[in-house]
Structure formats: structure tokens, C-alpha cells
Amino acid sequence: MSSLSGRFLMPQLSHTVPSSSARPRTRLFAGPPTVAQPVETGVDAGRLEPRVEEKDGYYVLKERFRQGINPQEKVKIEKEPMKLFMENGIEELAKLSMEEIDKEKSTKDDIDVRLKWLGLFHRRKNQYGRFMMRLKLPNGVTTSEQTRYLASVIRKYGKDGCADVTTRQNWQIRGVVLPDVPEILRGLAEVGLTSLQSGMDNVRNPVGNPLAGIDPDEIVDTRPYTNLLSQFITANSRGNPAFTNLPRKWNVCVVGSHDLYEHPHINDLAYMPAMKDGRFGFNLLVGGFFSPKRCAEAVPLDAWVSADGVLPACKAILEAYRDLGTRGNRQKTRMMWLIDELGIEGFRSEVVKRMPDQELERESSEDLIQKRWERRDCFGVHPQKQEGLSYVGLHIPVGRVRADDMDELARLADIYGSGELRLTVEQNVIIPNIEDSKIEALLGERLLKDRFSPEPPLLMKGLVACTGNEFCGQAIIETKARAMKVTEEVQRFVSVSKPVRMHWTGCPNTCGQVQVADVGFMGCMARDENGKVCEGADVYVGGRVGSQSHLGELYRKSVPCKDLVPLVVDILVKQFGAVPREREEVEED
Questions:
Q1: pTM, whole model, 2 decimals?
Q2: Where is the Nitrite/sulphite reductase 4Fe-4S domain (predicted)?
Q3: Which one of 51, 83, 134, 461 is the catalytic residue?
């Protein structure tokens, strides 16, 4: 367990935490642990046999568990995906033409499936021969140097090259061609970035508080935890086969704010800050996820870990999921399905078996998150906890940027800040560490006036959109441009007094997280008034984030996209207090 023994100093807790929590560091790890006792789960002992085994340094599915597995599992069995990186298979693959690749099933599976372990997604349907590359950017923190490098990559691809801020505080760059991949991977490493293990059955980008370390009201700085998790999961970007053969993707976040910017209730594992007997640590939530067939909020594991227990707990939970998760129907392989099957105590028992000394303390009642907290947005100018410094939140319309935009953001970060940028799960950008004396000059920059406003219209503030069918082969409808157009038109008809979060997703995979939005749009095919098939959306209403989180419910099915504006206007007036523009003008007179 030496690799998991990283120690944390006592975090700087906000003034909202009782002063009794400010104890000397020697008390942080004090106190006897509460040992979780074995429980009767009612699950057959044979069901608890690990389904994977280690062979030649990689974890593979045992022969006797290969009946009824899904096609993706078969691809993993036929050839270990991580060999493309760890044994440099990408170098040879990149030398082949697309015609040569498509002649053989093995190489075709390489570019369509296995390269996702390297963060590369072939856009076979919409951009044949081009790839989207997803990075790992723990806590959404990046540098001007990194941003310039990514800009240099996409610039060479002309109109095909662009980048998106994702709903996991991450960059995705587009237009990449296979022959360039080895050089791009080397360039990423030189600036301290990686795309490794960011797709398919891997742990996705660890999310944290976008204001970590700078927010006067933060509970704890999440950056050390998210960085450590990312380093552990990828073995410092060298590749970690212990966690690259999960049954399905797996999301993790560390909460550091009362605002719950991190969206813990939709993560497979969420660390929720809590004190216990004078020690700082985290209660654990598990199992949150979205899928086409089911969406579920994370549930308490009834477990608390100290700061030093963050990695061992992550490791134990991942191992339990890797070992015991089913690998049949892909719609039923996320971790919550395993939790349902074993029961929460049964799943907890399997986690305990994989903890150091088989010990895991029960949940603490000293939750540090204030339940009655009005969630703040990050737009505009805000003072940091560091005297004389502020951060500025910028609106990136539906998260889409071009190379010149990225270069400009990097320039502004260098001139006005500390060369750092922060990405948010709402697809926006924060420039931190700006001297107050430079704020006025920054606000006068053309990029902020023409493109990325620090004070966007209220309905634009919470607008989120997935990639859509412009690039994604799974998307049923176009999302980004449509989200902007519909919102602009709605703004002409109604005025709102506070932001209304509207999310768009192109298909039921719900990458745009429509279920957590005030109003969500899920792409589908619909029929217009003449019975003609057209692009449409299932409309969801009532999602909430924060301490009172709640998944939205289906409001109207299969609405033709051309009919969305009047429907949204009606929803905003009836449920969100919007005022029709003509009435607003009369009242002003």
C-alpha cells in the first residue's frame, strides 16, 4: 500500500466550519477507526468471485464469465487496448492508411474502439478519418502554455479543428488525424497533459470545485485530491491497467464548496467533506449515473474516510466494481446496477474487503456542507480569499472555441492573471489571480466584449449543450447552434429575473445532463403537423442541483424542434416567473 500513502496537511477550512475543527495536524489521523463488521447479504458466495484475473500485467475477464458478454467486452478480450499506449502500438497503427486499417477487423476495432483508451474517438459517421481527443484535466485547472499547445494542434486542421469545454471540466479537441497522434501525445506530455484513460471503460476526469483555493467560502481546496486521484488512476500518465478494464465508465468528484458545483449526486463516487471526532475527511456517495435506460442519484455508502483514506477508498470501490460488475447488456453495467444487486450493505462489505486492514469507518454526522445555501454563479468579477486579487468568470457560448480563442484566453491569463485558467462543468472559463488594479483593463479587452462576456444574458448563463450531430455519430439532432438559436428567440419573447438552466443533449446518452437542468432537451425524431419526420426533442422540467438536488421529469415527448420556442416560453412563464416582453414594456411605461 505504499503507493497509496500520500499524506495531506489539515485543509484550510472556511469560516463556516466550527472553530473546534481547527486542530493541530497530529490530531488529523487520531482516534481508533470503527471497523465495519461482515454482513449477511443474501447473495450467493459464488456471485462474489472476482470475474477478472491478472495476466501479463493486464486484467482480463475469466473464461467462465465470458458467456453473454457485450461486443465491447469481446473487443477487449481479443486485444488489450492499453497495449496501444503502454507497448507503443499507436506508433505502428498511425503509419497505416485508413484503407489499410478498414481491411482488417483488428485494426478497424483499434481505431473505432480501443483508441478510446487513449482518449481518441473516431468520428466514422460524420468525419471519417478524423478523431476527437479528450484530455484529463483534474479539477478543470490548466495553464496558458497548455492552452496554447492545444490551440496549435487544432489550428492545423482548419475548419475541422475546434475545441469544446465539457461537462466534466475538461477539454475535447477535434479534427485530429491518426498520423499526427504520436506527435500530439508527445506534445501533451511535454506540457504536462495526458489524454490517457479518458474514454470507454475507464475513470473519467476527476471533477472538483472550480474556485478551489481562491473562494473565501470554500470548505476545502479540492485540487490536491483531484490531482492525486488522476495521478493514481493513470499511474502518473504512464497507464494503470488495474483500472482500465471496468465494466463501464466511472465518474468521480471531490466536493469543496457549499454550492456543489461538482454535481456529486450524478457521480459514481463523490467525496463529501465532513468532520469526525476532530478529524477532517469525507463521507462517500456512490452510484450516481445517467444512461439511456435509467438515471439514478448517488446514495450514501455509510462510510467516512480521512484525507489519507481518499485513495484507498477509491481503489477499493473501483476494485469491487471491476471484480464483480456484470458485462452483458451495456445499459445495465454501470456501478449502481451492482449496488442494486448486492444491496448497499453487501456492496459496502465488498469495499471493506478491499480496504487496508479491511477497515472502513461509518458515515459521520458532522457534514460540512451547508444545506441552505444559495448556489452562486461564477460569472463576472469576484474577490478571492487572497487580498488584492479577484477572479473573472467568462461565458463561453455552449463551450465551443477555436484556436484563436484559445490563444487569446492564454494571453489574457498571462497578462492579467497568473497564467492559469479554470474550466467549469457548465462549459465556461474562469481567469483567477487577477490584481484588482488590472480588472478594468481586462474587462475592456475585445474578447470579453465581442465573444466571451463576463455578464451574459440570464438565459444564456445556464445554457449547456453536448456536441450534437455536427460531430457525434450517436447524436440524433444538432445541439449547439440550435441551443443558441432557440435561447436567443425565447429571449425576444420573455424576460426572466434569475437564470434558468437549460441543457441540450443530442441523444439518450445525455452527455448534456438534461435531467439536472431546469429545462432539458433530449434529441429525438418527431413528426410535424403534416406527419413528416423531423428533428425533435423530449423536454424535461424540474431538475435541480445543489443540496436539494433532484432529477427532472419528462414534460413533453417528441416536440418538433421548430415548435420548441413557444413551448419554452410557456414553461418559463408558468413555472419560472418569466414576464412576456410586451407586458414588461407596458409596466415600464
A1: 0.91
A2: 200-356, 463-572
A3: 134
